[in-house]
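To close the chapter, one final illustration. This time we ask the reader to focus less on the individual chains and more on the assembly as a whole: which components sit near each other, and how the overall shape emerges from the parts.
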Amino acid sequence: MTSPADLSLVGREFSPEEAQFNDLIAEDSRIEPRDWMPDAYRKTLIRQISQHAHSEIIGMQPESNWISRAPSLKRKAILIAKVQDEAGHGLYLYSAAQTLGISREEMTDQLLEGKAKYSSIFNYTTPTWADMGSIGWLVDGAAIANQVPLCRASYGPYGRAMVRICKEESFHQRQGFEILLELMQGTEEQRRMAQESVNRWYWPALMMFGPPDDESPNSTQSMAWKIKRFSNDELRQRFVGMLVPQAEVLGVTLPDPNLKWNEEKQAYDMSEIDWDEFHEVIAGRGPANAERMRRRREAHENGAWVREAAAAYARKQAA
Amino acid sequence: MMSTPGETGTEAWPLWEVFVRANRGLSHVHVGSLHAPDADMAVRNARDLYTRRNEGVSIWVVPADAITTSDPDAKGAFFESPAGKNYRHAVYYTKSEGVKHL
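The assembled structure is written out below.
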């Protein structure tokens, strides 16, 4: 008999369905929607996938801010395509969450009522064009580092949604890198704009991996369930390792005076993250929390007549 | 018997399952689901959601509640019939090993 994937079962006999669930997890197979699963597994997934979906939807806002002011038609077209991708990612994820028994409307309501969270990175503002570069390079870069292992998440529909998302994200990161590279090859003022933007986004991007491992109480269970494959700190460390050579190509400085290769650890030493800031933003007191929610609610209300009219038209056609 | 996972019948717009044919000569393959008020809108939404990068040349949409699935709890019994019938596979016949074009 395999050891139980659900840690609350350690030390007792399992029912046949619990045993089957544990075996599927142990053999790295996938759990599919109609399989039996522990309630806590279902709840964890609903929370994680819907938060992820909300993040994609709210995540359209900081960038849509620059669509009308992109510096060229090419950049405008790219930015529109990217924001459209984020909407698509939100929809893939809402669909995946729905297979667990929650309706789209319930999830939307949870977001609008402020009961559901979304990634706190989207509560930062985008005052300059260079922020489009930093979001692509750092924010989407961190998202990719987080999401690639999720393609192997034990819940089938989540993993499949993540495969589609990861394929599309790599364009996002490269276009951001290119924006920064062009600025860094420009005038003194443009280089300064790029560097200031990297200074703004570097630490918030590292916070995207979540609290340090010893303060991340749900991680152990999520890893036993094989929803999560690597710890927050492992992924953060891996990401920093990728950024350092990329920053050299760009010619930007990563804003951490203590960032240094540690031969012994075979990893980078870095400064302590300002976790107070992280907790403040999560608690709703970030630079743009209120603005993001206000716009999301407004968009939902303004779209109500479209949703109702389309449903009424469909009913009339069917009658 | 039941419809596909995710269909609740309680939402303003029903759920549709989407199938995309990647290229001529291939079958339509399930790619995911979406909400839409009617079939026309479902096809348009599917184009925008699932074929933004030339992923397909043809799309099918099916209302999720029109699909009947096998009972997931009966999977053992329901799919039992092929078990023990390995003579249905070519590898069962080993005496012809080494003989060409067989």
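Residues 219 and 231 of chain A are 7 Å apart (CA to CA). Chain A touches chain B through 29 residues (CB under 8 Å). With these observations in hand, you are ready for the problems at the end of the chapter.
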